[in-house]
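residues and backbone:
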Amino acid sequence: MKLVSLFTGAGGLDLGFEMAGFQVVWANEFDKAIWKTFEHNFPHTKLDKRSITKIHSHEVPDVDGFIGGPPCQSWSEAGAGRGINDKRGQLFYDYIRLLKDKQPKFFLAENVSGILHPKHSKAFADIIKEFENTGYVVSYKLLNANNYDVPQDRLRVIIVGYHKNLGKKFKFPEPQKYKPILKDAIFDLRLIVAKAAKEKNKTNGESVIMSNHEYMNGGFSTIYMSRNRVRSWDEPSFTIQAGGRHAPIHPQAPKMKFIEQNKRIFAPGYEEKYRRLSVRECARIQTFPDDFIFKYNDIADGYKMIGNAVPVNFAKYIAQEIMRT
């Protein structure tokens, strides 16, 4: 079954769907910092590099399904949360515009949990109604990727629509019994020395022993130090975010020490143990395979691509259910 991928990013969603037997034949991504990574890992997929607002439906191929996660910053609880009042939040309607004209068998849209915040309730209800009016029977649910073979706590809203002509409604897969932990994902990488980024957090390039196994330098803000940023080997990771400065601390370090409300410090005597997870470690936690190579000059772009991606295994579980039905 052939797919169109919108807001494709580095392709976590795409790879998960391809693992389930789908084929992504056409993708759209406007951020030029991502293009090299996508084209390297998906050489068989045509990549349209324009803003989705400039794309006409006749330029999009006829396929069985649409997948994609419209930009989530507008709906994030950590951000300004302007939602539909932000131009990025309005990009949902470009997704719907193309969906309405092409009428594939199904669609999937992914977004942050903040889209369910009460302040966005009317806007979210309107988006669901638009999907329904476009001709789809819609299901949505807040899921934790840790329940679907991903070693991190990551809450995301998944919206799936089946075309009304199919006479079906998507049912979300049941959570898996085993919830993976950091030890499952990156314990073996402790034997491969991660490199600190170069000056101004530029990449080490091919001089790293393992592709992308390098980490961001620089201080830790008071916001970062306001709470513990360390998860132990036997716990799932914190959510992998799109900013390298906010990457979790490697589990080799002890939990940060509480001083007072909104203030933690690194455990005295263990300061050298505290480093951010490397780009490759974050990719592992997002369940990207090691042969998926991230291309960048600024290490921040590597973290951003990975943090914005849908975890591959999470995407695969949902895709398998769509394929099955």
